[in-house]
Amino acid sequence: METVYASRENSLFHSSIAISHERKKESIRQSTTLRTNLLKPLEHRVPHQSIRHATSTPNYVSLLHPLPQLRPFSPHITDSGPLWKVYGNREQIGDSYLKHTCVKRLADLIESDSNTESQTEESSSAAQLSQDSVETELESTYCKTDYLVKCEYHVVYSVSYSVPVLYFNISHANGSLLTLNEVWSMFRGKKSLITDADMWSTLSQQDHPVLNLPFFTIHPCHTSRLMGTLWNYSRDPPLSYLITWLSVVGGRLGLKVPNELGLYLASPEKPEGS
Amino acid sequence: MMYFPLVTDKVRKHFTQYINPESANKEMWIDFNGQPIKWNYPIGVWFDAFCFESPLPWTVTVHFEDYPETKILHCPSKDAIKSHFMSSIKEADSLKHKGQVINTMQDKDHHQLWLGFLNDKFDQFWSVNKRLMESTAGEGFRNIPIKCYLNEKPFQKLVKPIDDTTENWTTLQEALFEFDPKLNFNEVRVITHGIEPSLKTPIQWMSEHLSYPDNFLHIAVINTNTTSHDANQDRTA
């Protein structure tokens, strides 16, 4: 038994940890070197100022709840229901998410500007080779036809970063998912200067926080700074935050935000038929 | 060496002798009791959360076919593990310090964290990690990076180091109430790193001393059908 004491003036305040000697694991080595830096008593603590200084993002409710009310603005969508639906327990921040599914031509997801380049492709530097070969395979196998894939986009609010996060999966008809390389080539395009190292910190697989299943996700650590340049808390409505954010992160992933939505935000009345 | 893919090279080499040569280059995966093991959980966390009562050594099954990609993440290379590890650290710092510590570090510091962890170099790792564990004296972190595994599912909630009502350091028990206000501590065991800390332990202290290298606390809450008298001694609030 090893015990650690932190004493206050009026009471003894201890925590004790029993460490089983049969379970020596490297992973707890650093925690068994118990530091003598104990928790200071709380008498001289400055009380936390109420953390409601002007937040740079809208709170969870105003952020995610209006989205499902949008009617479809794109003429290609025949479903008259909302584009996005809420799933899970709406009242709990960590337990709900927005979902949008659609079917797309894979050729549309691989940017059309890179399609034209591919026809006259000259293999450039060695660094481009791996990117090129992946995309050529995709294009030759799938993009010359109307080959369809199913796309699923989820928006989940991150309590750690106080921003929305995009999770998505794109699957073939047989249920198999697009690979990481394929999704990367979709995202950064053909002759891209974005290195693999940068991509690892931008787009990778994670477990969906509510469903606990593998999804691709755009890392949220830069969202706050990015949105700070595009959206203003005191000036712009919460819904425009979400639309702006979606068009930035979703734009390279086949998630096109229709122009009509921008017009809708600009004018207070709803368009006809919605 | 916290994640399965970092320690299974020898396992793969051993088994590739015995399997169909066509499968030898396929992605390997592991299951316990028919459930695929998620490599992105620290090894010990999976054991604590899913099979704590199992006898040791822990017996798992290795597969080379039919990778269950709808259930577990792919792990194409060490870069995938590094990406996951670093994003956990960033998220933890976002909770603790609004990201200010990790963002003011240089790339070489991030790399040193990863290398120190990868190569099991305690001092190299902690020379950077100690900055992630700093907080204002008497106040603690802004929020505690903590994952709680309830009924074999991971949850994350905002937990403050100082309890609003008691104005005292939040205890482990109070932190767990954030995850499940109806938790009956007579019917569960609370495990981290394979040990059962006292429920009165301040969560701020646990965050500084019992976090995994990814800077998160991983706490498994296991249902027990029967509890012995001895187990109850230190448990009541």
Task: Write a brief structural summary.
Chain A is of the alpha+beta class. Chain A has ten helices and eight strands.
Fold blueprint:
The complex is a heterodimer of chains A (274) and B (237).
Chain A: E1 2-7, E2 12-17, H1 29-32, H2 60-64, E3 85-88, E4 96-105, H3 106-109, H4 112-119, H5 126-143, E5 148-158, E6 163-171, H6 180-188, H7 196-200, E7 203-207, E8 214-218, H8 223-230, H9 238-250, H10 259-266
Antiparallel strand pairs in A: 1-2, 3-4, 4-5, 5-6, 6-8, 7-8
Chain B: H1 4-7, H2 9-16, E1 29-32, E2 35-36, H3 43-50, E3 61-63, H4 78-97, H5 100-104, H6 107-118, H7 122-132, E4 146-150, E5 153-156, H8 172-179, E6 188-191, H9 203-209, E7 217-223, H10 229-232
Parallel strand pairs in B: 4-7
Antiparallel strand pairs in B: 1-2, 1-3, 4-5, 6-7
Helix pairs in contact in B: 6-7
Task: Report on the architecture of this protein.
Chain B: Pfam families: ATG5_HBR, ATG5_UblA, ATG5_UblB. Chain B: Involved in autophagic vesicle formation. Chain B: GO terms for molecular function: Atg8-family ligase activity. Chain B: One of its GO terms (cellular component) is mitochondria-associated endoplasmic reticulum membrane contact site. With 274 residues, chain A is α+β, with helices and mostly antiparallel strands. Chain A is 30% helix and 20% strand. Chain A has ten helices and eight strands. In chain A, the strands form two sheets. In chain A, strands 3-4-5-6-8-7 form a six-stranded antiparallel beta sheet. In chain A, strands 1-2 form a two-stranded antiparallel ribbon. In chain A, a hairpin with a 4-residue loop joins β5 and β6. Chain A is globular, with a radius of gyration of 25 Å. The N and C termini of chain A lie far apart (68 Å). Residues 1-37, 43-56, 72-80, 112-130 and 268-274 of chain A have low confidence and may be disordered. Helix content of chain B is 37%, strand content 12%. Chain B has a four-stranded mixed beta sheet with strand order 5-4-7-6, covered by helices on one side. The interface between A and B is large, with 50 and 64 residues.
